[in-house]
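Our consortium's second objective concerns turning raw sequence data into structural hypotheses that experimental partners can test. To show how far this objective has progressed, the report includes one record in full. It was chosen at random from the queue rather than selected for favorable results. The single chain below, 601 residues long, was entered without modification.
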Amino acid sequence: MAIAMQNLFKERKIPFLFIFFLLLIFVTFILISNSQKSPIYLVTDIAQPQLNHSINPTPSLQNFKNDDILSNNTKNDEVEMDNFDWKLCKGSVAVDYIPCLDNLEAIKALKSRRHMEHRERHCPKPSPKCLIPLPDGYKLPVPWPKSRDMIWYNNVPHPKLVEYKKDQNWVVKTGDYLVFPGGGTQFKDGVTNYIESIEKTLPEIEWGKHIRVILDVGCGVASFGGYLLDKNVITMSFAPKDEHEAQIQFALERGIPATLSVIGTQKLAFPDNAYDMIHCARCRVHWDGDGGKPLMELNRILRPGGFFVWSATPVYRDDERDKKVWKAMVSLTEAICWKVVKKTFYSAGVGLVIYQKPVTSSCYDNRKENNPPLCDQNNRPNSSWYAPLDNCLVPLPTSSIGNTYGWPAPWPQRLNNKPQRLSLKTDAEEVFDEDTKHWAALVSDVYIGGLAINWSSVRNVMDMNAGYGGFASAIIDRPLWVMNVVPITGPDTLSVIFDRGLIGMYHDWCESFNTYPRTYDLLHSSFLFGNLTQRCGLAEAVVEMDRILRPGGFLLVQDTMQILNELSSILRSLHWSVTLHQEQFLVGKKGFWRPNDKVRI
């Protein structure tokens, strides 16, 4: 072609500028043909071995050894699928194994269980690197919203609660399903009537407008939080892993936000002044125990002006034991300046009381006795991660000019309004607004429709490095919910997330998360792993993600190519399908593959 053009030029049949233009097009065409990337449309299927992608693991991955669980023998700087020798976890709890809650060796060594120490986190060192087996007959979960009312029995094959709570309509086994009729210990007329009766008792509550974010303590199978979703209320349901077998696992299988936790000797993994309301219906917590520390922990995480709804026998029964508990509760709530705004019967023989936390410190200052005292903020840890419970009252927050913080704007305006606890740095609001716009654009332009993700199958989502909650905000209109996780080693933005009307927790990703296996449909991470691998191995993080994610679930990671290449090699060894997009996004899909080991019971 070039010779032909030269002859044409000599014969002056084509003007010089036109020849130059043709040559420019020709060179451009050659460059594009030989290019190895397109910034918009590049999609690489790493699951196909014939592509022969070269993987260069970091030293941390090359040095990773565990002969019993995982071996990684690299040759010619390329990680192949057969070099990871995965094995199944063993033991009677393997199918539902939660490393930091099932560390039996650490639990046996505890000196005391008086304050629920055995239900708290005790993480094994090093972290286990075995894979969780599937229950026999496991199926893809029932889709939302049908799952709120029924789930596959074989996915959570625990019959104890069916028998134990058969008279209270918690859960019923019907054929291949577990069915949740909406009953509960305190929901004599059903959970829907119970929810409506609370708002009738105190119209100021205004579900889904004034009250948006709730903590349900000792939640059972989370029907209270599940039905509040109809009111645009997001509820963090929690309970310990205890004799009420698999109640949190039931909740998550239903598609209802929930986590495993206990009010024992350590703070809950939430920031101060987070929740609009806290709810307890026969939650079996001794609020006045240990000098009132459990109730002071609720006071810490309840927003000023927020409500505590307590439905329990001391509220409405007159036997000596209940009267003694009620008297202790009256004394304690008065000492922390909570006022009773309503006390009523809402059903035949069943009642509740609604307390409200103060919005100013005037009551604290006017108490006859400074007991409990105000916490010394100068000597108080900033984080609640592994921190002991306070035996003091957290001072109410004030603005930079000394005013008390007001209540957030009504939902949904509060989602995008400036959060009250945003950093006081001069550019903080601008950074927040840009972050919100960034995630809105990224989700609409890339995540939805641009990646190999079936969003219609996604219900339970976890953002592993949530920042301001921008990702959750951008997908707020979809029929899903997001657990916003703020890593303890990064900026503390969890208060902002709650101010926006979203939910989340603190966590350290070098340890396992407080959830059962197979409880999330999608895990999302944006530039998490670079800092994480400075403290622990990437393989350990992948094992934990494989534990949390359901078969058929998705992993969506934005990170550097070095991290993505390392992740892809490990995920391939787990027989996940993996694709790269735009040289910055990885989408992995977990299958049903498990190593050919049988669980030894």
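The partners drew two points from this record. The first strand starts at residue 43 and ends at 45. The longest helix spans residues 428-450. Both points have been shared with the crystallography group to help prioritize constructs.
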